[in-house]
Design goal:
Low-confidence stretches: 1-7
CATH topology of the largest domain: PH-domain like
CATH architecture of the largest domain: Roll
Order of helices and strands: EHHHEEEEEEHE
Number of strands: 8
Largest sheet: 4 strands, antiparallel
Length: 192
């Protein structure tokens, strides 16, 4: 195990991360990424457009009028069910991506120390520490805190696996007050 650098006031957290926690991180950042939003929107209209085009082309051919109704109806049906289908599809896709990219056995034990000017994290993979100045964004959702550093490292703190959620929140707010880091409260976020 690593040696921790202690500052004056340290908040120590010990928790386990599961596959669902990593999935929620992926889903949150995918829902905020403009490229992903545009891709999903294009996909929706591409599928509807193809069905409409096929339906209209077949509509003017006398022998395939019944088939044209099928394509026109499927485009309307797809327009109605797409929001639920895309939520299911992308969640499934990200869930498959986690074991491939992480190569971690779950549950994933994490020891996190939140100091005044340093954050230290110890996992099976090793020990790392970050200066608070390296933090870019702290995001709070209903069930998680996500900390993103300038090194593109994301730290997940699941609220349901720690006892002192309010202390953690206060420490993260102190980081915002004393450093150039943004604190985003997104308590109503849902994957959609």
């Amino acid at each position: 195990m690593g040696v921790f650098l202690y500052s004056l006031s340290m908040l120590e957290l010990n928790y386990e991360l599961g596959e669902e926690d990593l999935l929620q991180l992926q889903l949150y950042f995918a829902s905020k990424d403009e490229m992903q939003i545009k891709q999903r929107r294009k996909e929706k209209y591409r599928m509807i457009g193809l069905s409409l085009l096929c339906g209209l082309l077949l509509f003017f051919d006398e022998g395939y009028r019944l088939l044209s109704y099928f394509f026109l109806g499927s485009s309307v049906l797809f327009f109605i069910i797409y929001p639920w289908w895309s939520v299911w599809f992308y969640k499934r896709m990200y869930r498959k991506h986690i074991p491939e990219s992480m190569r971690v056995e779950f549950p994933y034990n994490t020891k996190l120390l939140l100091g005044n000017d340093i954050i230290e994290i110890e996992t099976k993979k090793g020990h790392r520490h970050f200066s608070v100045n390296e933090m870019d964004v702290i995001t709070e959702t209903e069930y998680y805190f996500f900390i993103v550093t300038s090194r593109q490292v994301s730290i997940i703190i699941p609220k349901h696996r720690i006892n002192n959620t309010e202390e953690v929140r206060m420490q993260l707010l102190r980081y915002k007050e004393n450093n150039p880091v943004s604190f985003v409260e997104d308590l109503n976020w849902k994957w959609k």
